[in-house]
Design a protein that fits this description.
By secondary structure, the protein is an alpha+beta fold. The protein folds into two domains: 3-259, Rhopdopsin 7-helix transmembrane proteins; 331-481, 2-Layer Sandwich (Heat Shock Protein 90). It has 16 helices and seven strands. The protein has helices spanning 3-25, 36-63, 70-94, 102-111, 114-133, 137-140, 142-175, 180-200, 215-222, 226-297, 300-329, 334-348, 361-364, 369-389, 442-451, 477-481, and strands at residues 352-358, 394-402, 405-412, 418-423, 429-433, 455-461, 464-472. The strands form two sheets. A five-stranded mixed beta sheet has the order 1-2-3-7-6, covered by helices on one side. A two-stranded antiparallel sheet has the order 4-5. β2 and β3 (405-412) form a beta hairpin. α7 (142-175) packs antiparallel against α8. The protein is elongated.
Length: 482
């Protein structure tokens, strides 16, 4: 191929990957999403930008415009490529699900450290060899750099991305009636292909396998420059990311609608408070005045009037309670229920309650009304226990999702509880006590968790108590009882 064609290929190659990175990094408010992929896409975005810039440096070298700055260009290109593959490998490992059993989970947490280890290894080699050889470093270390950034970063990143996105797509397919899983699969296959093309077909060098599998062999077999294949793969990555971002935009719109609905509920609650004040409290106040009049004058008419006011107040209260209770029971907005509960408890006690949630709005509608109410009562029991039996000053409430598993975690900073060794057949403690000997109602929470097909875990230490509820987002109670 002529230098002009190669120059043009690297120009397009770099442009496609930089554009891909910009598209990804333009995804705003990613913290609002409960989709694990959305929250880690920034790593893929930085890979695209840094990798595209490195290819443009190659393009500048081909042009011959800055031959006198060869050393600077080579150093810049190598740094950009190494950092880009660091972000690609980091992204790929983060696609792997965290919940795959205790042993697998620990292995994945260990894998997270590998990109940093390889980056450190490359940096140490660079400093050492450059200190010894100066500009000659780029001749004697080309093989070592290729091994680190191509064989140990790029190729494993393709495999890891494929595995993680395939698992994620399979789980998402079970939850959402959308094409989201298709875009997961497409992105996974594309990144696997890129890992093979860019991590295996390196430039020809005198060591195995680079002397047999390289750019030149690929071109001789296919007649296609390998840069063309990379350009196509870069376009496909951007395409699948755009499709995923469209789903994300729908999620954000749903979240905005939910926030508007929540504000409407808050306004209705304020109106309810006014009604209670105007319709009930005034009746109670009038009744108290009549009773005082009766006590002062012993006039039966005052007492009859007080009884009438009380009766009217009771009827008003029943009507309001009936309406508000029906609104509560008709709601399956678990997050709204938890927020209401926190607002109520913060007024009752000097307890700092912190609530964090990472639930996709598309998932919230999957939680049935019956499940939401049972989860609410488990939360109520756990927090009430903390208020009654603990000297805790803080309670952390976390609601997260791992595909079709919803996890509610309530943790305090109190003194813990003690187990008096009463367990059921499965080994779950049926009676736990505080140091003051008061029962904490753990069996009630366990029964409610069983009712929704969930699993309840209670752990305690001197630093506090943690109650964890894990249940499926899909299905209603009739499904769980089968």
């Amino acid at each position: 191929m002529s230098e002009q064609i190669v120059f043009l290929l690297y120009l397009i190659y770099g442009f496609v990957f930089i554009l891909m990175g910009i598209i990804i990094l333009q995804l705003r408010n990613k913290e609002l999403s409960g989709f694990p992929l959305i929250r880690i896409l920034y790593s893929l975005g930085w890979f695209g930008i840094l990798h595209g810039l490195s290819e443009w440096v190659t393009m500048i070298e081909i042009s011959g415009m800055f031959n006198h700055q060869y050393l600077v260009l080579e150093m810049t290109k190598e740094v950009l490529k190494t950092l880009s593959f660091f972000f690609l490998l980091r992204f790929s490992i983060m696609t792997l699900p965290k919940k795959m059993g205790n042993g697998i989970g620990w292995t994945i947490r260990f894998l997270w450290k590998i990109p940093f280890f390889l980056l450190l290894l490359w940096f140490i080699r660079f400093i050492y060899l450059y200190g010894i050889s100066g500009s000659g470093y780029f001749e004697i270390d080309s093989a070592g750099t290729t091994v680190i950034i191509r064989y140990l970063m790029s190729f494993p990143a393709g495999i890891s991305s494929f595995v993680g996105l395939f698992i994620g797509g399979k789980r998402i397919r079970q939850i959402y009636n959308s094409k989201l899983h298709i875009w997961y699969y497409g992105l996974g296959w594309t990144l696997l292909s890129y890992g093979i093309v860019d991590g295996i077909f390196v430039r020809k060098m005198e060591f195995f396998p680079a002397n047999y599998i390289n750019h030149q062999v690929f071109y001789e077999i296919t007649g296609i420059p390998i840069q063309v294949v990379k350009i196509i793969l870069g376009i496909l990555i951007a395409f699948f990311i755009v499709q995923i971002s469209i789903i994300f935009e729908k999620e954000k719109k749903s979240l905005i609608d939910q926030m508007i609905e929540y504000k409407a509920v808050e306004a209705a609650r304020k109106e309810l408070n006014r009604e209670i004040h105007d319709r009930i409290i005034q009746k109670m106040f009038g009744a108290s005045l009549k009773i005082e009049g009766y006590l002062a004058k012993k006039d039966q008419e005052y007492l009859n009037k007080a009884a009438s006011y009380l009766k009217e107040g009771i009827e008003e209260a029943r009507a309001i309670i009936s309406d508000s209770s029906q609104q509560f029971l008709d709601s399956n907005d678990l997050i709204g229920m938890i927020r209401d509960f926190i607002n109520e408890k913060e007024e009752e006690a000097s307890l700092d309650l912190t609530f964090n949630h990472e639930i996709p709005t598309l998932s919230k509608g999957k939680i049935s009304k019956e499940k939401a109410i049972q989860v609410y009562y488990i939360l109520q029991e756990a927090v009430t226990n903390t208020m009654k039996h603990s000297n805790a000053s803080k309670v952390w409430i976390r609601l997260t999702e791992e595909y079709d598993d919803i996890i509610l975690q309530i943790e305090d900073n109190g003194g813990g509880i003690k187990d008096i060794s009463e367990e059921d057949e499965s080994g779950f403690p049926t009676r736990l006590e505080k140091e003051d000997g008061k029962n904490l109602g753990i069996p009630i929470m366990k029964s409610r968790a069983d009712e929704i097909g969930g699993r309840l875990e209670v752990t305690s230490s001197s630093r506090g108590v943690m109650v964890k509820l894990i249940f499926k987002s899909r299905g209603d109670l009739s499904d769980e009882r089968k």
